[in-house]
Amino acid sequence: MEFPHRTKLLLSLFSILTLLSAFNFTHVSGLSGRQLLQTENTSEPLRHSDDTVRVDPLDHFNKYKGGFDITNKHYWSSTIFTGIPGYAIGVAWLLCGIGYGGFLVVTTFWSKSGNRKLKKKSFSCYKHCYLWHIILASFFTILAIAALGLVLGGNVKFHSRASTVVDIVIETANNASGTIYNTTGAMRNIRENLETTDVGFQASNFLTSTSDQLDDEAADIEREARKNRRLIHKGLNIVYIITTVIVSLNLVAVIALSVSGFLKFRRAVQWLIVFCWFLTILCWFSFGLYFFLENFVGDTCTALEDFQQDPYNSSLSSILPCDELLSAKPVLSEVSAGIYDLVNEVNSNITSLQQTMSLNLVYVCNPFSEPPEYKYLQGNCPENTIPIGEIPKALKVFISTSNFKTVEAYTTSIQNLLNAYPGMEDLVECQTVKDAFSEILIKHCEPLKRYVRMVWVAMVFLSVIMVVLVLVWTTKARHERNYHSSDGSVKHHIAAANMLDSGMANAGNGNTDHTLV
Fold first, then answer.
1. How far apart (Å, rounded) are the C-alpha atoms in residues 185 and 206?
2. Any bridge partners for residue 386, and if so which?
């Protein structure tokens, strides 16, 4: 049996295969929810979803038609721009606040400098208006607290689900690096086994250099995965923390405003109105942010569906190198065919020996199906056959010690290749990526879209309530300001009139006494 030549050929083919897979899969090392990976390949995706045709502010507000492509800045700008309703309303509310503040400054200055006339006003409606203000403020405060609870609950669920998706995809990259490490471990075992044979030196050098390159590629995958995991989790945590802080501040401010208003702490109410006005601006901006995130999540899930249907012609083709990994499949087929032919040759020799020497030898289990499929049949051996790794045991009593070591080295090497074969097959066929995307689609896409929609809808509800609540308290504060100002003026003039009347009365009494005297 001529093992050396075939074994060297199989080792060479398998090493080429693992190198091709490792080099290509390095580009997938940063796979993630928002940032699936960043590659130098910026080719246009072959299929585009109409949902991504949006206004692009970086392209003079022309329509973006490049499809889902996270490596394209125009995709990001057009998607972020979908939150323009929230951004625009937030800016408008800010301008209204600035305008109203300026109006208060002008009117206050004007009233102090020139408006000294006594205004006759009817204050009969003060208590009636005060009662209605309190009722409205209480009602909208309760609604605001309910909306804050919805935002907080949706934000927690969205953050948890998004973190789970990121962990799934990062784990996919780690599994790829683990597959490569398993392969290099098998190759090191092969190198150690072949050191005792006559082809040991040449094979050892080849396997050493190849396994070192593969280890470097696997280390790159792990390093990129760790870096992207940190970056993405940092981004998700920032969004989560900012939203939680805005919700918490809103809750405190709304309650404090209500308490201060009920207790008639005028100065505290004025400052809290300003603070709530600012928080309302943040709520509108948050609505725009989560509206953009819903569009991005929808685009991502649509892209994953396209990928599941055709991994080699989808909107993710520009960032996932499955078509490049597919180019390594012929090498994998060569390895399969080589092992298949080798096992058939061994079994043919066994048949010859049985006919010539009347030996009762068992046949070797062929781990691959017949051509042209060469499908790997792991653990599916017929009865009265043995795996390749057990050949030395079957031949131990028939061959010399030196030949036994040679056969053991070669058969163990082939068995090590077979042990690493399933992982390499999944890597080449992009099966690990398909499985990860399938899990995301089935278990996480719909909940992600539902929770992010829940957040932005609740944020719109909260923003509208905050606008009404701020207007109610602003109206009440201004009403009380005018009331107290006018009331003070009335009291001042009444006091002056009383003093005048008292002085005149005293003067009259003095004159009367003088006349009598």
1. 14
2. 364
